[in-house]
Specification:
Helix 7 crosses helix 8. By secondary structure, the chain is mainly α. The protein contains nine helices and no strands. The protein folds into two domains: about 55 residues, Orthogonal Bundle (Arc Repressor Mutant, subunit A), CATH 1.10.10; about 140 residues, Orthogonal Bundle (Tetracycline Repressor, domain 2), CATH 1.10.357.
Length: about 190
Amino acid sequence: MPRISAKDKEARRTQILNAAIACFAERGIAETSMRDIFEAAELSAGAVYAYFPSRDDLVVHLAQVSEERWRATFAELKATGDPAPIDLAKMLVTEMIEGLADPATLKEISGDISIWVHGIHTTSLRPTVARVLSVMADGFDDLMGTRGAGAMILAQLQGLALQAAVGVPLNLQSAKDTTHTLIDTFARVDATAS
């Protein structure tokens, strides 16, 4: 049997992950079977199981990818040092909120929401999902030099993402203004407490 190159292995893994993401976004994780993923990836069961022994292994991997992406995003923003941390936080939330109007971004966000929901219902996945959400909240806190702001900003963004994913019309400018005000409020409170 010919050996598969590292490049081909990575391409196969990406093919499986993309199929899983599409299925999860379309059906939700609980309603997606491994057979759905095989079919979407156009691969045999054995080919998929060689990389991911279960649906939950796929979910954990996707959550880890999300965690790494968020860590990198916050590290990159913090390393710039310019503009001010509050302005960097505002730029990031503006980009995230504006993404809610983009169908491709919204599809990706729907996949993230599916992972969050699946984490609620699958006890073994809760720590993984909690870790990703903590990385996001802590990233905002670290970026802004505050404590507690990140959890509130994340809650605001999650609420907006959920509404957009189910088709609730959003006033994106109002959402940006409200979230920016939240950031400014935490910055003032933190400055007063110092």
